[in-house]
Specification:
This protein is mainly beta. Helices cover 14% and strands 40% of the residues. The protein has 3 helices and 11 strands; from the N terminus they run E-E-E-H-E-E-E-E-H-E-E-E-H-E. Strands 1, 2, 3, 4, 5 and 6 form a 6-stranded mixed sheet that branches. A 5-stranded mixed sheet has the order 10-7-9-8-11. Strand 1 and strand 2 form a beta hairpin.
Length: 145
């Protein structure tokens, strides 16, 4: 675990996750960015050129990234077979319908297709909280919006 620090604040006990990338990156929510005092762009993982600076403080020292902090875009990992079943293609943006007490439609959800992926939707805590999602719920992919 590390502490991430921006000009206005810090967040402690942030987990370091894989996969290993060529360049370090930090993914935060919009709410986290306000705490830190930074303005990261919404991007796909790995797309960090020109993104927000951030400092990471760990047990072995401090690393300052001049760029590397983003708000990860909403996305769904799918195998090629899943993509055929859902009628979508890699990179396509879809809408996702969420049922429940705080249900609604999430637009601009990017499809990511790879043999290495299992079907799973990735959203940040801001989106999850806005729609009342706790994890493990079923949602409906709408191919047009």
């Amino acid at each position: 675990k590390v502490t991430i620090k921006g000009p206005k604040g810090e967040i402690k006990n942030v987990r370091v996750l894989g996969p290993v990338r060529r360049q370090s990156q930090v993914e935060v929510s919009r709410t986290d960015s306000w705490t830190l005092g930074i303005s990261p762009p919404v991007r796909s993982s790995g797309d960090i050129a020109g993104s927000a600076p951030i400092t990471m403080i760990g047990p072995k020292g401090v690393v300052h990234l001049s760029e590397g902090c983003i708000i990860a875009d909403r996305h769904i990992h799918m195998s090629p077979q899943d993509a055929v079943q859902f009628g979508v293609t890699n990179g396509q943006k879809v809408a996702v319908q969420v049922d429940g007490e705080k249900g609604g439609i999430m637009n601009n959800v990017r499809i990511r297709v790879s043999e290495r992926y299992a079907l799973d939707m990735h959203i940040d805590t801001d989106d999850a909280n806005a729609f009342g999602l706790l994890g493990g719920e079923q949602v409906k992919v709408l191919t047009t919006f």
